[in-house]
Amino acid sequence: MNFSQRLRMVMQQIATKLQQFMVGRYGSDQFTLFLSITGIIFSFLGNFRHLRAFYFIGTIMIFYGLFRSLSKNYEARRKELNWYLVWSEKPKAYIKLIMNQIRDRKTHRYFKCKSCKTVMRVPKGRGKIEITCPKCRMKVIKKT
Questions:
Q1: HSE toward the beta carbon, residue 90, CA cutoff 13 A
Q2: CA pair distance 111, 101, nearest whole angstrom
Q3: Is there a single domain that holds both residue 131 and residue 87?
Q4: Residue 139: helix, strand or coil by DSSP?
Q5: Any idea of the CA torsion for 29, 35, 39, 41, to the nearest 10 degrees?
Q6: What is the per-residue pLDDT across 39-78, written as a single tens digit (0 to 9) for each?
Q7: Residues of the chain with pLDDT under 70
Q8: Shared-domain flag, residues 22 and 84
Q9: How many domains are there within the chain?
Q10: What is the pTM of this model?
Q11: How far is CA 75 from CA 26, 68, 71, in A?
Q12: Same domain, residue pair 99 and 110
């Protein structure tokens, strides 16, 4: 048996043992990924700018993400994930809106309805047009 075959066999054994260790554990999800990436960024900033508070917060976030991955309490981890998904919904929608506005800046304009705050997209260069909100049916005249 040559070296590469022995190395492959050892790596397969390690992978099998890791799989057996993770049986019954929660594993990784979106919140764990967020905690890990944010923790790494905070730790890096803490080292770079000598801000010990950032380093400390980043380290706590990384360890909490690891704790979540290795936890066997599925119910508590699911509650935390649901909380994170609800909490992160508005910032993600706002970032998506900004990205769409940047993408469509040459062909469309975006307006917000004054009554229900719905964002509407209309084509540019049509002059004054009457815009009807699809949600509340309020009509507004705007220049595109």
A1: 3
A2: 11
A3: no
A4: strand
A5: 80
A6: 999 999 888 767 888 999 999 999 999 999 999 999 999 9
A7: 49
A8: yes
A9: 2
A10: 0.69
A11: 10, 12, 10
A12: no
